[in-house]
Amino acid sequence: MNLKSLIHAQLDGQITPQQHGQLEEFLRADWQARRLYLELADQHARLLQQPQIGTGRLPNPTLESAKPPKWQKFIPALATAAAVAVAFFLWPRQSPPAEATSNGVAMLSQTLDAEFAQNTLRSGDTITPGTIKLAQGLAQLEFFSGATVLVEGSAEIEIISTWEARCISGRVRVHVPPAAKGFLMHAPGMKLEDLGTEFALNVQNETSAVRVFEGEIIAHSKDKAPASLTEGMTLGDTTDSFLPISELQGLVKQREAQRFADWQTWSQATRKDPRLIAYYTFKHWPDDRWDRLVNNFTEPKHKNRAGGAVGARWTEGRWPGKEALEFKRPGDRVRLNIDGTYSAITLACWVKVDSVDKKYNSLLLTDGYENGEPHWQIYEDGSLMFSIIYRPENAAKSAKYNQMYYSKPVFTSDSLGRWHHLAVTYDNMSGEVIQYCDGSEVGRAISSLHVPGHKITFGPCEIANWGLPTQGHEFPIRNLNGAIDEFAIYGSVLGPTEVLALFQAGKPE
Amino acid sequence: MPESSTSTENLILLLTQHQEQLFRYIFSLVPCEADAKDILQETSVALFRKFDQYDTTRPFLPWAYRFAYLQVQKHREKSTRLPLLFSEDVMDLLANERAHIEPQLDERLRLLDACLGKLTPKDKELVTGRYALRQSAEEMMRRFDLSRRTLFRNLELLRQRLHECVSKQLESEGLA
Question: I want to staple A421 with a disulfide (CB 3.0 to 4.6 A). Which of A224, A257, A503, B122 is the partner?
């Protein structure tokens, strides 16, 4: 081995005593060898302490200490107060990852038929300083200062900071709560300083018109003394009507109700799909006295495949009126028992992940992990992970039979807290696993461990957790942190267009 | 043992400020993270005990390094992994050499961040797995579908690329 490889083997703890001896010889004999070693060791030490890089991955992964703290044994030697102080900086110091930062100043809280020049903007997005061009539709911006601005297309708005924006053209309506007093809205020929109020602004052809609905604003116009405008007062040519506030809320509600109704119609039809093994829509039955039934809606009915919620609470799903189950605590889950053996499967669900905070975050797992049982989870780096195992009898313990498939990472800080459609298909002949997020393929692979023809089974299994722990044993905590409002299990592989159709039929907006 | 709480506070401030440097110093002599951490703690305790002897008009780090060096030797004496630890003469050489080039090492770390940003997505995933998530070799082998040999080969190449990137930067800044 050359010097470099010896150094790296040393850093990775892979060096043998004999190689270590060789490395020592190099270091003893040659200052350049020492220098290279010191540089590489220093770089490695730094990475161990500050491993954060801008990977766009999930921020703040949980770091687990490999060894228990050892400082306790020194306590007798120290005054207690000092020990606490020394311990204070020594042990929380599993090199805290650099805090995630954002240069956002506002968020796009709601949209309706909105078309942006930046066509990637979606509601829920964080807005950074810059110009937003809304070709049509309505968009509501919530500034981090607390001010809310409703914009009607076509309009052009420059976002300057959490406290400042400019209306270049279009109709906007601004609401400023007391906490955001002082919010500044620029417009051609004037600057409006808001003293806690609600006002509307129209800018057409470089001329501005203002109307105050509530409270007070100070209008600073060119060549004029600042003027106070109070409730009912207007400034400029007000022949064009101002943007009414009720519009967005009302229309959004209407639109959501429409989407929900469309999905219900689709859902009524899709539940007759003969390929469905089980189909849970998370409908909360008000007359279910136990409140724990997660009914299976496949037609014809398979009542024995109904699920039972444990711990999880009912919450709002993709639309108002659509229910979902929320999983937060380590015990939260939906218990299922799915009979039968299959040669291919598709798992599909609508999920809102609040945080990927565990090593494995469950979607659907069978109890234990026996031959032919699928496990579907979100891995700690935000990728989707599907696995299935076939271990021949008499197999050596050390042999590997666990087929694991990872997608590329799909959960980042940006995709958390929103509804996403996830799906995975597996064929026991080809061994191919295809993973999808929001109808698009995010992973496709065949494991080198695949042996064709092994049956797939479920049996006792659960959504959003992994159980049941055997008596007296501790169980790994794998519960999902989030909510699920639809879950379908098919006994065959759905093609890419079919998965895309599932997404299209159920997407919230 | 120091009496006043002010001196304890002073020490804590100094240690907080310099513990990364101390860790790096110790790690260069004992390149094993767990051991280096233990030694860092033992060093902190030793510093606490002897802090009344610290001359506040002098720089803290050289004084602290002496304690760290002693703790490294103590650790060496009681360690059961002797064949994998550097002999005393090599440690001595390394510690001396390091004292000479410490400013350059600090300079290199300043440039390391920029070089990390230039890594390919694949390399970034490796860094995240190995350093941020502290994944075991087995996990990373599964995760990246690599044999043990290839995994460690890739890690070596990755660190080597980072090292070269930093050296190039230094050269272009005329500092090498």
Answer: A503
